[in-house]
């Protein structure tokens, strides 16, 4: 594991924002586009807000979501609503290039619809992820059948956190990405990180090589 430790969540978010800019510019220079997967959570939210004034060619950015909660369009608890408020409503990404998960359709239909979009997408240039106290990432929870679902987007039921119904990118997409950054902040997640460092195969540990950005509260 390549772990970068920062004093607090703010400095962690600032460095990830800097990495997004670097990776975006590099992807556009090399391939003409930047395919970027967003994560939910408070630390990613801080990162997104810092990118509002970034001088990027937003017209070449394609936005995807690592997971979504099965809630109505516009619900404040949806990841795309958070991303809109923190960043997307402030920059000029063409709406057709923001690929939202239609979670309002329910787990199965939404996963099938999103998988059809992902089937035509190139490998993601940068995938941002978080980690929960139980070691979950995106909406891939310990012991959930979604962990062994090989589809590009997977339906999730009986999630231990509300709401119980969700959709997640599957490992087949997450592990195909060119780069993965996992952001973790807060003392409550220290135990999960320790378990992973000791070799336990929690869901986030099933990802291909990641760069970890954590705060001192997590690293211990």
Structure at a glance:
This protein has 220 residues and is an alpha/beta fold. The protein is 31% helix and 19% strand. A 6-stranded parallel β-sheet has the order 1-9-8-5-2-3. The protein has a 3-stranded antiparallel β-sheet with strand order 4-7-6.
Topology:
Layout (H helix, E strand, L loop, with lengths): L1 E5 L2 H23 L2 E5 L3 H9 L10 E5 L1 E3 L9 H8 L20 H12 L7 E5 L22 E4 L9 E4 L1 H4 L5 E5 L5 H8 L13 E5 H4 L1
Parallel strand pairs: 1-9, 2-3, 2-5, 5-8, 8-9
Antiparallel strand pairs: 4-7, 6-7
Tally of strands: 9
CATH architecture: 3-Layer(aba) Sandwich
Helical residue percent? 25-40%
> Helices and strands, in N-to-C order?
EHEHEEHHEEEHEHEH
Could you say what the CATH topology is called?
A: Rossmann fold
CA distance, first residue to last residue: 16 Å
State the CATH class. Answer: Alpha Beta
Regions with pLDDT < 50 over 5+ consecutive residues? Answer: none
Largest sheet: 6 strands, parallel
Q: Going across the biggest sheet, name each strand in turn.
A: 1-9-8-5-2-3
Morphology: globular
Beta content comes to 15-25%
Which structural class is indicated by helix and strand composition? alpha/beta
* Number of distinct helices: 7
**Mean pLDDT, as a whole number?**
97
| Quaternary state of the chains | single chain
Number of domains: 1
Radius of gyration: 16 Å
């Amino acid at each position: 594991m390549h772990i970068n430790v920062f004093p607090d969540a703010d400095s962690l978010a600032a460095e990830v924002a800097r990495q997004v800019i670097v990776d975006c510019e590099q992807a556009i220079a090399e391939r003409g586009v930047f395919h970027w997967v967003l994560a939910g959570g408070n630390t990613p939210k801080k990162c997104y807000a810092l990118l509002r004034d970034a001088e990027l060619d937003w017209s070449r950015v394609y936005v995807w979501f690592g997971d979504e909660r099965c809630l109505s369009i516009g619900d404040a608890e949806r990841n795309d609503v958070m991303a809109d408020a923190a960043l997307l409503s402030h920059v000029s990404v063409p709406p057709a290039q923001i690929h939202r998960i239609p979670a309002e359709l329910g787990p199965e239909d939404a996963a099938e619809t999103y998988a059809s979009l992902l089937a035509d997408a190139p490998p993601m240039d940068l995938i941002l992820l978080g980690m929960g106290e139980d070691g979950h990432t995106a909406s891939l929870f310990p012991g959930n059948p979604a962990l062994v679902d090989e589809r590009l987007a997977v339906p999730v039921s009986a999630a231990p956190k509300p709401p119980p119904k969700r959709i997640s990118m599957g490992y087949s997409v997450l592990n195909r990405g060119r780069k993965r950054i996992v952001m973790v902040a807060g003392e409550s997640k220290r135990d999960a990180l320790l378990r992973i460092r000791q070799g336990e195969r929690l869901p986030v540990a099933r990802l291909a090589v990641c760069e970890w950005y954590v705060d001192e509260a997590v690293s211990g």
